[in-house]
Amino acid sequence: MTRVWCGGFSKSQLIVKLAVEPTVIGVLWLTQLLVMFGVEGERKCAMIDDLTLARSLHILAVVIWIGGVYFVTFIVLPSLKATANGIARFEAIETLFARHAKIVVTLAGASGFYMLHKLDGWAWYGEPSQWWVFAMTALWLLFTIVLFVLEPLFLHAWFMRQAAEDPARTLAWARRFHLILTLLSLTTIAGAIYGVHG
Ligand code: HEM
After folding, report:
1. The pLDDT value given to residue 46
2. Considering only CA atoms, which of 3, 64, 66 is closest in space to residue 31?
3. Are 151 and 62 in the same domain?
4. In a 3-state reduction of DSSP, which class is residue 51?
5. pLDDT on residue 175
């Protein structure tokens, strides 16, 4: 008897659906599975270790996090008009994204420090050639402070006050701030990949 899994699909139907459905989630999970188990199946399974798992979680978190920041910077913000309605839409989108960002920023930090511990890499902070480790940590710290401390304490209220006074100027600030964060993030990612493989 065919066993029915979630959504009324059989197990094989679910696997085919996951493999062919061109959604972001499908691609992400497929990539995750390939990274974790390897395309060659059993033989590579033996190579899975906690460091590999931490690395794949780290990258997954960074993709969601920085991908979201990029989207807000280059798609959401330029599409908004500098009016009270534009500010309200920006607020709604940022509030939703901040919930996701808090989770993935925490995951990126936890997996990053775990890898550093496993690789015995604490001394890298003092080596100029390993500047990318410092850059990753500094960027993580910046986002952590903004998301968990500054935003709830005063940044949100300050932003709304400024927006009520001058929406155009406030949106221009938001654009500039997001552009700086995006450029810093992309440089850090490129530096990290070059640092590990270069
Ligand atoms: C607390 C913060 C962080 C720590 C402690 C940390 C630590 C690490 C460590 C130890 C590695 C593995 C190095 C190796 O495999 O030899 C790594 C990989 C990586 N990290 Fe981070 N990281 C942090 C945050 C970030 C952030 C904020 C980004 C990007 C915006 C980032 C992007 C990357 C990338 C792209 C790699 C993969 C490099 C590769 O294997 O090709 N990390 N990180």
Report:
1. 45
2. 64
3. yes
4. helix
5. 96
Query: Both 32 and 78 in a single domain?
Result: no
pLDDT < 50 regions, the chain: 1-7, 43, 46
Q: What is the pLDDT of residue 62?
A: 98
For ligand 1, mutation pick of 50, 55, 58 (most atoms within 8 Å of CB): 58
Q: In terms of residues, how long is the chain? A: 198
Res 38: pLDDT: 56
CA of 112 to the centre of ligand 1 (A): 6
Q: Is the CB of 119 under 6 A from ligand 1?
A: yes
Q: Is the CB of 58 under 6 A from ligand 1?
A: yes
Helix 11-20 × helix 24-37 angle, to 10°: 110
Q: How far apart are CA 174 and CA 168, in angstroms?
A: 10
CA distance 130 to 30: 32
First to last CA, the chain: 53
Cα 11 to Cα 4: distance, rounded to the nearest angstrom: 7
Q: Are residues 26 and 55 in the same domain?
A: no
Q: Give pLDDT, residue 73.
A: 98
pTM given for the model: 0.79
